[in-house]
Known about the structure:
Layout: H1 12-18, E1 21-24, H2 28-39, E2 45-48, H3 51-61, E3 65-68
Parallel strand pairs: 1-2, 1-3
Amino acid sequence: xxxxxYSTSHSITQLTQERPLLxxxxxxxxxxxxxxxxxxxxPHVLEADNGEQGLAIFYEYHPFCVISDILMPQYRDxx
Length: 79
């Protein structure tokens, strides 16, 4: 497991240098578009194609931010 600890004095830019962003989207074209756009600014962008995979990545990497589709096959709404 990775340790992405940080202090509250870090800026958003510093945090995203240390901790990844996570994109959870079941539609591959939409997910690729979002990931490609984010990678222009942020060095560490992780992606998942379903909620179960997204949760596994979330618990392993502790991302700074999660961008998620809320209508996916395994999980719906805010589950």
